[in-house]
Protein: Cytokinin riboside 5'-monophosphate phosphoribohydrolase
Amino acid sequence: MEGVSVYRFTHICVFCGSSPGKDKEFLKAAHTSEYYGEKIHLVFGGGSLDLMGTVSLAAHVGGSKVLGIIPKALTATNITWMTIGMEIQVSTMHERISKMLEKSDAFIALPGGYGTLEEIFQMLSWSQLNIHRKPIGLLNVNNFFDGLLSFLNHVVEQNFISHSARQLLVSASTADELIDKLQRFVHAPDPVMAQLNWSEQGSKKRSLGVIGLKLDTKVKEKV
Structure:
């Protein structure tokens, strides 16, 4: 990596299914230790079911600190089983994803269903809007995400996603390759999106601008 800027991260958020899936390679990929260790820690959705449980157990055994972020509604029924490591309970799904963003330096999606796709696309959408600049990747185990990646390229061709926004998502078939790509990632948002200001100060300026416009309109009406 000589001469190449490397993005340093200490906490990786892993999204994945709460079922084992059909392919045994999915569990094998979840059990790999390349994501974690004493210097890289795990953030995930909490509980200990199937892929999610395998990810958290592998991280724990590998010496990683494990943080599960889970809605109280899921813990109340005990359908997700106990979280290995620390656990933060939140009230809503939106609060959960916001807390994941706060606690993580990078994001990886393993095979999963609606929840996994929602989480990874939420992070992509926020990256596109310049809310954060953290790397996002798909671990394309046994070509699981091939159809999704092909669809995203199609969406680019149809001018619903810009070429620069498409580069916000990286993918690889192995954990080693994906970690390398995430470390080399450079956030390059669309020039228009780069102008967005998500700070409270930016919101206040917008509010003051709207107030000024209304006052100016009232003055013109009186004249």
Confidence is low (pLDDT under 50) at residues 207-213. The two ends are 67 Å apart (CA to CA).
